[in-house]
Amino acid sequence: MTAAVSTSQDVVVRTRGTRRRTAAAALGTVPFFAFVTLFLLVPTAVVVAEAFLTDAGAPTLDNLRALGSGDIVRALVNSVVLSGVTAGLGAVFGALIAYAVSTASPDGPLRRVVSAGCGVLAQFGGVMLAFAWIATLGLSGLVPTFLRDHLGADVDTSWLYGLSGFVLVYLYFQIPLMVIVFLPSIDGLRPQWREAAESLGGSTWQYWRHVAGPLLAPAFASSALLLFANALSAYATAAALNAQSTFLLPLQIGNAIGSEVVLGRQNVAKALALEMVVLVAVVMVAYAWLQRRAERWLG
Amino acid sequence: MAGTGAHRARAQRRLRWVVLTLAAVFFGGPLWAMVVFSTSSPTGVTGATWRQLVDVRGLARAYPSFVDGVRVSAALAVLTVLLMLVLLVPTMTWVRLRLPRLRRPMEFLCLLPLIIPAIVLVVGLAPVYAWVTYFFGPSSVWLFLAYTVLVLPYAYRAIDAGLSAIDVRTLSEAARGLGASWPRVFWSVITPNIRTALMSASFLAVALVLGEYTIASLMSRNNLQVGIFQLGQRTPAMSVAVSLAALLLCFVLLVLLTLVGGRRQRRVSAHPVDLEENP
Both A92 and A211 in a single domain? Predict the structure, then answer.
């Protein structure tokens, strides 16, 4: 009886001690959480909350209604088309390149060069990639100049600054991103699986159709979704190519920030940003789900 | 069997060269166009732009705001890396050792910027930066606070992979058993063991900061990319030369990193965006 009592008292003392120590230990994480709250959670909350407020701070749905205006809907559609097309093409071409690289020696120079090149183009590019294409296809770029000087042909390359031009320029960073995220999945294919398929009399086509294809499908789809989200939220390249236009959602947001002085329109930027977050969030949740399925076999 | 293997190896080699040649044309073409663009003049080939680019003092006179942007970006890269390391490394180690319950929330917060892209963040940051400007002034250098948020997902992934690869608990218990204090455990035991991961995280952060345009331009601050963009409005040849130089420099640095880091390093940096945990 006494023993039991003293034990339970011990437990109480010990839990209290542990709790106090955990509380003290939690103090160590305060700087991190304070920083994240200030510079990530507060801005997010500002976007979400002020999308529903007038400039004066009264609740309203007018900002969301503004999203239905023709100009903004067109920008949204263009953005989705651009992201979809470049995600699809980027995923296909990127996967091809990733496969080609995976057949080379894993520590060879080819792989180093391709990984580094893809890293630069996918994550560093932005403004500079736009300039690369202006130097290629712009009015005094390489291709038009060459055609003018040698063939006497005057070509119109103003399409570079429209949707089809953006597709080309976006592929310049989408394909490398695909190579980066898809290469580890292809590396996950074990040679034994191919040997097993062959020893059972399967052809190369059958191996890809029934073994490698289904195994890679979730990774391929999740990578394509990542590319979609990446293109959807890209601003730098678009702004560098065509700063004045508002035919894409990110450009609309940039423009709305610039013209925040316009009375009564201050929070439209927030509504646009909210629309973007919702879109990206949906895509990223699907991405995470597919990624988990992909890693079951190729992790 | 050996016959099919050799046949397949040959077919793979052929496919490899066809695909990579096409890729080299697509990706090399614009880079070559940049070389031509930055060296052409009405009278023929000229190295004037590149000579001017190398002459730092002359450049500072001709394009003061561009050189200022370069300086700001260099400072931003250093400050962002420092703040990222100071915030993440001790906290992540500490959470692993003492507060495992906080691991999920922390991971969620670190990966959150993946769905709050820069173009959205900049919209919400306006009131926060109104305070930053009020307290510290309008200098572009304060952008490092926002940039640290942008690099969180990539840095978290890299450092998390590094911490998963070592046995943090055993190492720290051994060190504590031998009488080391917590700061000493952290500095002399944990940090040296995840050196490669820290390098990889830092490099990703540097690349991201040097390439950042969205937040800087929409907040009307100056940095390397804003400088390049404004250069493009005035002297296109110079901006193309600068862009090419920056791209090549980044490429060389990345190649060097794969040489230094070896295999594991590459695997860590090969997953720039990955919501899953390592097993």
Answer: yes
Burial class (CB in 10 A: 0-12, 13-18, 19+), B130: exposed
What three-state secondary structure class fits A207? Answer: helix
To the nearest whole Å, the CA of A4 is away from the closest chain B CA by: 30
Cβ atoms within 10 Å, residue B145: 19
| Whether residue A278 sits in one domain with residue A206 | yes
**One domain for residues A236 and A129:** yes
The predicted structure's pLDDT at residue B272: 44
Q: Say whether A100 and B109 touch across the interface (CB within 8 A).
A: no
Nearest to A213 by CA among A297, A289, A103: A297
DSSP string, B141-176: GGGHHHHHHHHHHHHHHHHHHHHHHS-HHHHHHHHH
Distance CA B34, CA B56 (A): 21
Please tell me whether residues A22 and A115 are part of one structural domain. Answer: no
Q: What's the CA gap between A232 and B65, in Å, rounded?
A: 31
Report CA dihedral (B80, B85, B87, B88) to the nearest 10 degrees: 120
Helix (H) / strand (E) containing A161: none
Structure tokens at A47: 């976007």
Query: In chain A, how many domains are there?
Result: 2
Is residue A25, in this structure, part of any structural domain at all? yes
Distance separating alpha carbons of residues A281 and A275, to the nearest angstrom: 10
Does A183 reside within a domain? yes
Q: Specify the 3-state DSSP secondary structure of A179.
A: helix
Q: Judge whether A56 lies within some domain.
A: no
Contact A112 B255 (CB under 8 A): yes
Helix (H, G, I), strand (E, B), or coil: what is residue A59?
A: strand
- How far apart CA A175 and CA A85 sit, in angstroms, is 12
Q: Which residue range forms the structural domain that includes residue A46?
A: 1-50
Q: Which chain B residues contact residue A116 at CB under 8 A?
A: 251, 254-255, 257-258
Q: Evaluate whether residue A36 is within a structural domain.
A: yes
Secondary structure letter of residue A235 according to DSSP? -
Closest CA to A183 of A118, A234, A109: A118
Return d(Cα B84, Cα B158) in angstroms, integer: 12
Rounded CA-CA distance B237/A126 in Å is 18
pLDDT tens string B63-84: 888 888 989 999 999 999 999 9
Per-residue pLDDT tens for A174-218? 999 999 888 888 888 888 888 888 888 888 888 888 888 888 888
Q: What is the DSSP string of B2-54?
A: HHHHHHHHHHHHHHHHHHHHHHHHHHHHHHHHHHHHHHEETTEE--HHHHHHH
Beta-carbon separation of B116 and A44 below 8 A: yes
What pairs with residue A53 in β-bridges?
A59
ipTM: 0.82
CA-CA-CA-CA torsion sign (B20, B21, B26, B31): positive
Residues of B in contact with A254 (CB under 8 A): 119, 214, 218
